[in-house]
Structure formats: C-alpha cells, structure tokens
Write a structure and sequence with these properties.
Number of strands of chain B: 16
Oligomer: heterodimer
CATH class of the largest domain in chain A: Alpha Beta
Shape of chain B: globular
Distance between the termini of chain A: 39 Å
Helix content of chain A: 25-40%
Largest sheet of chain B: 6 strands, mixed
Strand content of chain A: 15-25%
Radius of gyration of chain B: 26 Å
Number of helices of chain B: 31
Distance between the termini of chain B: 57 Å
Largest interface: A-B, 22 and 26 residues
CATH topology of the largest domain in chain A: TIM Barrel
CATH architecture of the largest domain in chain A: Alpha-Beta Barrel
Number of helices of chain A: 10
Largest sheet of chain A: 9 strands, mixed
Strand order of the largest sheet of chain A: 7-1-2-8-9-10-11-12-14
Structural class of chain B: alpha/beta
Helix content of chain B: 40-55%
Chain lengths: 301, 818
Amino acid sequence: MTTAIIGSIGRYSIHDGPGIRTTLFFKGCPLSCLWCHNPEFQEHYPEISFNKKSCIGCGDCAAACPVDAITVESIARIDLSLCTYCMACIEVCPSKALQKVGVEYHLDELMEILLRDQNYYLTSGGGVTLSGGEPTSQMDFSLELTLSLHKKKIHTAIETCGFFNWNDKARQLFETLDLIYFDVKRVDSKEHIRCTGQDNSLIIENLQRLTGLYKEKLIVSIPIIPTYTATTTNLRQIAELLEETGVTRARLLPYHPFGLHSQMITRKPASQPQLPDKPMNHKELRQWQNLLEGYSFEVIN
Amino acid sequence: MTLLNLPDYSLENYTLASLPRLAELRTLSLNSKPAICIERARYITRFLRKHDKPDDAPEVRQARAVHYFLRHKSVQFFDKNLLAGSTTSKPLGAPLFPEFFALYLWPELDSVSTREKNPMTLTTAEADELNFEIFPFWMDRNVIELARTRFGNPRCLQLFENLSFFLAGKAGCISHAVPLYKPMLEQGLEGLIQIAQTRKNQLAADNNPETKQQQDFYAAIQIALEGIIIYAEHLAEEAENLAEISDQPEIKNHFEMIAKVCRHVPAKPARSFREAVNAIWICQVGIHAENINMAMSPGRLDQILWPYYQQDIAKGELTVAEAIEILGCLWLKLSDNVTMVPEASEEMFGGAGTVPAVTLGGVDKEGRDCVNDLTYIMLRVTELLKTRDPNVNARYHYEVNSHQYCRRVSDVIINTRAVPAFFNDVKNIEALMGQGETLEHARDYAIIGCVELASSGRDYPASSSIMLNLVACMEMAMYQGKRPITEEEQIGPVTASPSQISSFEGFWEIFKNQTRWLIDQAVQLNEMFGTIHQQMMPSPLLSAFFEGPMEKGRDLIQGGAVYNSSGATHIGFANVVDSLNAIEEVVFNEKKYTLEELFTAVRNNFSGSDGEKMRVYLQNRAPKYGTEHPIARKNARNLTRFLFQTYQSYTNYRGGKYRPAYWTMTNHAGLGAISSALPDGRRANELLASGITPVSGAAPELTTCLNAVAELGGTEIPGCWALNMKYTPEEDTDAMGKRFAQTVEAYFRSGGQQVQFNLMTYEMLLDAKKHPEKYPELMVRVSGYSAYFKHLNEHMKDELIHRTQYNLTNGHAVDFPE
C-alpha cells in the first residue's frame, strides 16, 4: 500500500483555501528557496527538531545515542555529522524538546485523521489542502489521497511549486482537485536558479498547461519576499506572464519570518539571505499589490 | 404575526446612551455593595417561635411560615426600576436561610462587614438580633444538625464535613429548578388557588382519611400563594403612597403605573407584556421566600413572554425600545441578590452570583424553530448590560435553527467576551430522553443554574445534590483506601498495594471500587438529607409552579414532579483521566516505571531531579485527554460510562434516578489547592481542570480538544457539562464571528453538549490580577456561571489565567507568556 512521509498535519487552518481546513505538509521539496517558510519540510527524510525552551538538560538523549552525537551541558546539542537519524534520542526525551519531523503514513491512517474534522469542513465550506514541501514529489500518494477525499465529497486543494513532470498521474491529480494554488516566484530564469536552486522552465510549462486545462480552479500564488521576489521588475514580469498565459486569479503571499525561527536541526549550512525579522505589514503588501492592478487577472485576498 | 419581524437582529441602534434608565440602573447595580438581609430569618424564626401549631403537616407549617414572612416582608423601591418587588430589603442583599448554612456566619458576625474578600454589610443591631434571637433558635434545628441527631453522626456526614471528599448540596439548598410561569400568567395566582381549592374539596367530599396528606398539601399551596398576593398588594399600596406624595409628574406617573400593575398581577391573569414580566418577578421573589436563592431559574423567557409581547406590539401598545427597557429591568432585578458566603467558603464559592438561568432559542415542543424577536431582544439586553446574573444560555439546534441565530449568539459572546453559553439541542434532548423523558418534554428543556438540564416545570432535579471529588477516588485507589490529606486514617476499602497490581485493568478495578464506595457514601448522605428536607423544608409554594404536584396532590419534595432525579457533579475529571492514561501507558505499556516507583514519586510530590524528570515525562509523554490518543479517548469514555452506570443504579427518596454531570463552579481551584500530586504530572496543590475541560496545556490543538470532549456527549451525561474555552480576541470581529459560529456548530455536530467562552488573553488576565482597578467591570465565565474577575479568590484568578488560550486563526494553543 502507498505511504507518504508527512511533515506535519495542520488542523483548523484557515489560510490555505476556503473555510476551515486540514493542511497536509508533505515532506520533501525539489526547490530550496532561500526564504523558505517551511524549511523543515525541504528534505524527503524524517529529521529532528529541537525546542531549546523545553529541554531540561537531563542527558537521557546523550545516554541513548548509539553514536555519541549528543552532548549535554545546560541543554542538549546534536552533532549532525555523526547523527544517523535513528531517533533513539526522541524515544527517551521526557519533555518532547526533541521531536521527529516526518512520519510515514498509510493512506487509510491519514484518511482517518483527515475525516476527524469533517464537521468543521461541513460547517465552514472547508476541506483538505495538500501542501508542503511539495505534494507532487509524492505523486502516487497525493493522487490516491485526493481520489479518496473526492469520493467522500471533501473539498481538496493543492499548494504546488509547479516543479513536477507532467504525466497521466499528474493529469488525474489536477483533474480531481477542486482548487489549485500554483506558485510563481521569479520569471528571469537565472534569478530563479539563484533563489530556488532550480530552473523555472518546467514550472512555466506546467503553469501554461494547467491554465489551459483548469483555468477556473487555478489561482497563482506570488510570494512577496523583500529583495528576492518583491522587485518592481519581477512583479511586472510575473504580471505579463500571467496575462499571456491567460491566468484569471492571483493572490499574494506576504513574507513571514517563519523560516528564521525554525527549530529544525538541519545539515544544510544556515543560509543568510538577509531577510527581515518581522512579517510584512499590510501597507507594504498593498504597495506591491498596486503594481499588479490593471492587468487582465484579478488579485484576490 | 410571525416569529421574526425585526428589521435588524443585532438591534445595534438600541444602546445604553439611548436607554438612560438602563444605563443608570446598570451603574447602580455594578457599584452596589452586598449587604446581609435578616428579614427572612427574622420572620421565619418569629413564626416558628410564636405561631407554629405542632399538629400542622410539614407542608402546611412551611406554607404558613412563608406566608407570614411575605406578609411582613418590607416593601422597597430603591431606584427607577420599572418592576416592583425585591428579593431582600437591601439593593443588593444576601438573604439568610437559618435552616441551612447561615449559622456558619455566627463566629463572623463582627468581621463579615470588614473582611478583606467580598465583605457584606451587617449593622450592629442586625448582628445582635442574629446573635441573641435568631441563631440560638436554630442551633439544633438546621438541616445538618437534624441529620446528625437523627442518624447518629453517620460516617457519610463526617466525610462531607471534611469537605475534601464530596459536598452534599442539600446541607445548603435544593432550589436548582426551573419553575413554570405560564399557568400563573394565564390564570393568575387566584386561578391556581382555585384549582387547589377545587381539588381539596373533591378529596374532602370522598371522606377518605388516606387523602389527608394531599388535602393538607392543597391547603398549603393556597396559604403560600396568598402570601405572594399579599406581598403584591403591599407593593401596590406603597407605590400608591409614593405617587400620592410626589409632586413631580414623572415620578407620580412612574409609581401610578407600578401600582396599577401590582393591583392586578400576579393575583389575576397578566394583560400586558409589562404585567407579565412583573408577575414573573414577584413570583420569583415569592419563591425565594421559601427556597434559598441558588440557581432558581426563570427558564425559557423568550417563549413564555412571547404571546404578551406579540399582542402588545400588534396593538401598538409596546415598542421594541420599551421591551428592551422592561427586560433590562428584569435582568437587573434578577441580579438583586447574592448568597451569603462565610469566609471559610470563599475558597470554594467566592464571587458567584445566584445563577438564575435564562434560556433562549432552540426548538419548541413540536421540534420547530422557536427563535423569535424576543430571543434577539434578550440577546441585545444581555449584550448591553454585561451583568453577572442572570446566567443567559442559548440553545441551538443545528438542523432547525438558522445560521443567522447561531451567528448572532456568537457575536454577543465576542462582544461581551463571556456570555451567553451555548447548548446543543440535539444532544441535550437525547440526554433527557435517555432519562425516560418524553420527546415533547425533553424538547422543552431549560438550563438550571450553571449547566444542568430540566424539562421546564416538570423536572425537580436537585441538580447540585452531590459534588464528588474524583481526585479523592484516585488517591484512595493509589494508597489502599487512604489519602495524604487524612494521613493514616483508613477511609475507603483496603485495596491492593501497587506491588500486587499487575495490569492496568487491575488498577482500573481498584479505582472503580474506591469510587463506588465514595459514591455510595455521598448517596447515603443525600438520602438522609432528603428525608430531613421532607420533614423540614417542603416547598408548597414552589410546587404550585410545577406540573405534577397539583395533579398528584404531592409536594415536590415528596416526588410530586413529573421527573424526580438527583444530580451529581464531578471535580477533577480531566486530571483523573490523565492519571489513568499515565498509569496505563507509562507503567503497563511502556514499562518505563513500575507502579510502585510512580506512586512513590507522586507521594513525594516528584521531589529530586529524578522525580522532576519523571514528572516532565508524565506531563509531556503520557496520553492526554483533549488529544486523539486512543488510550486517552478510551479512558475518558470508560470513566463517564462507569459513573453513569453507577449513579443510575440508585433510586432516590423521591423515586428518581441520580444523573451525573461535569461542572465545578470554583471547586476545582479550591480542591486543587488541597490535593496531593497526581500521576498525570500535576504537582501537589496545583489547580485541577474545570468542568469537563482538558487540563490546561494538555490539548494544544483546538479541533482535537473539541472532538475529544464532544465524543463523550449524549445519554451518559444527562446532567450536562461545562466546557470552558478561551479564545484570543481578534481585531476583525466580523471574520471571527463567522469562524466562531462555524466552530460551535461543528463541535455540536460531533456531539458536544455545552460550551462557554472567555475571549481574553493570558496577558490581559495577568494584568487584571495585578491592576484590578483597570478592569472594574471585567466579567468572566467561571464554570457554568459568570463572575466579576475582581471578586474571585486568588486560586480562581490563577485558574482563569492559566486556561489554555486558543487562536481561532490557526487552531493552536497560544504559548503561555514567560
């Protein structure tokens, strides 16, 4: 049976589609955006998060570690160059300061969890959103899940970075979904590579394809990241691309410093992209939104 | 006229600025200081001393005493309230019921006026009268002493007097009822007296000596109701005098109107909305001449008053503004009294009002949507006044009532930050039908006091008969029938020591043994008190406002009502479920610690670094009620089921069943302060969770919390519950209101019976504790009722501060500030 690695299940989420929803954060993403809001979901394998505030410095984790990767002074420190992700430390941590991020689920297990909030979907016109990470990176599972939810008459949405191979499964997935949020970040391909680690031609190709097929249920998401995507040139280029493609609706995702406060213990060197420590305010967002007025698509909230 | 005619259901154009009378009365009410009123104690005592006839049946004696008091009760007009009648002789009065706890005031007569927490004014003359004339008479006549003498100071009475095992409500009151005012409004008290007389005559004609008790009861009803009529006449006389002596036309007119009303009702059928409202209020005052002022609940006022409102509006004799004003006056009258709380009881009950519950909305007896204009008017009155009492409750049937109604109730909660509470018609009707009530009767339920359910005027549910401390049961299970607080004394049965317990099921059986034993003690005492009440405190006056007594010729206390249950509520539910979870998962599944290790650490309050490590593990890693962990779900369900089955196996002295419930008033804070540590990782003396609410911090996600509670709803909790939720206020109240209503509906669809809210942040409540002067009117939901934050004791303030605060923007608990 198909399984998926899920980074987190966000119950009662209200920003990922209509109504009250459950958002599934798939683990693993083909892009590695410098400003990533959910860096804990970039890698495909389960990782470890550490909440310093909860650690009581008891040392049980160090004692449990088979490769001596953990030292404890007042609180625990893990040397990731030694860590094998056996998760023995997590098993013993009394305070849950150490937690595993990324759990393997069978489809029926996950469906059972998603159905628990069915009454909230019903009363609010909500449903389930596949997000991440990148749901299409676990395409087989995403498809089966979407079909199962559809059978239960539950509204489904996806938040995708657009970087996936088009095939029968992809077609069936997007056919079944009720709502598609499709990210467009940079139009200039060199800049796209610099900011996300990948070329954007596949993304633009998929955008054109999906707009052609499912214009009425597709909304383009534009992350507004100071100095990275939020430049006059880039936003004008995006607007032109959307107009050419025939996109009808777009929404802006204002910058939030979630990524800076991630508790993930990661192997990657900490990127220093000079991002602000505060979420973007309404006024600034409004300025960028003004730039997108007068085009053939609508900017929605 | 259809049920809904208002152009704008929020009635936002009606404000306190446009209703100066209400604005003034509200300010007076919020600033009034409670005073003890000794009138009732004086006249009841005087009657029994001088006029009692030893041969009178208990019902007749009580009726004559109440009649005597009502005849002598002083008539007071304190302010510009449109309604005549007052519970006591003081603007905000605490009447004394020497039959019950009043004697606890004896040692405090000198200090009650000046004590630090919630002082109550008492003049020297009044204190002397209590000291020399009233209290000595009652020394061996109050309910507790009568029970002690009659039953030889039984074990169960001693356990109750320890105060940490269970509380026996009947030592302080029965009250807790929803009288039916409709027949009184339609026939007048004279009509009811006539019915009683006719029935008495019929029985007398039969010449059957076996009907003497019934005949006495019918006589008692008449004597008691005549007392109310006399009181109303006195009100009319005084109003006429005041009109007479005033040379200001406005005041003259005010008192002439009042006199006109009181000359007519409640003796005769009400002719107008105002008469109907004042008739209800005078009868409510009358009921308190007989029954202690605790949770005497007027019920479904939007339904009872609807015909009078509709008729006056149609005739053009009433405007919406006038209806708001009259109802506002009623709301303020309903809050004109408090209960006398001795200093020693402040920890348990401090800050509570008397919790007269008003019930709005829902469905009618036929199952139809019965939300009407008055429902919305009463919501607006509640929103404008923001007073502690009455305790306003909104019924909601998600398949029948409109979303607009659910949304409007949600908006009022957001705007008042606290009221009304929400009740689920689907599950509560199911719960009452599970108790053998007919569908029609169950649909006509109203809320009593905090959260309990009663078919209006048909249930006499003595809903606060037992308040059982589940933590005591857990401790006795852990320590072979002993408790840390009572040290070496053997309390419950001697059960197995931890080393002899080899499975969770084994421990669960022991826990059930101890709980059954304690419930049995509590039931025994309730039965004893019941028989004392039958002799000493029948309620012929209250019986006149019920369906059943008039037909059967039997007082409520003798089982005269249609339904005759007793209520038992529970303190520490969530902590005990979590303790069971910890024992099952950490000891028997994970085998992380042995049962002996666990209990030893708990007994030592988790001292030492190993103890603290264990505590942190138990707190963070053991399954918690309020999450969807299967063990937590199973244990919560098993506990409510076990309690339900245990109580239902008893039949009370009135022939009804015991109904379990989960509301705690402020007892969870008071009992927490004297309870030892628990296996759930709670340290000694820390707060217990309130009502059926999960332990603070144990349920980090909103929907899992609501789902875990909701799935317990239905037939096994016939006494209902209090679920306390705290939400972060949002700037965009419109967007929040929408989500709020959707969330309540989803919780109800999942089975939730009740929910109540505080819209406050940790920071705001911390600040209110530190700077009470900045929050003079801050009203909070406690556990089934509202209180002013400043009046609560420190434990209870802390409990409100620490309740989990959820964000409705992401469904997560907010981190407690460092």
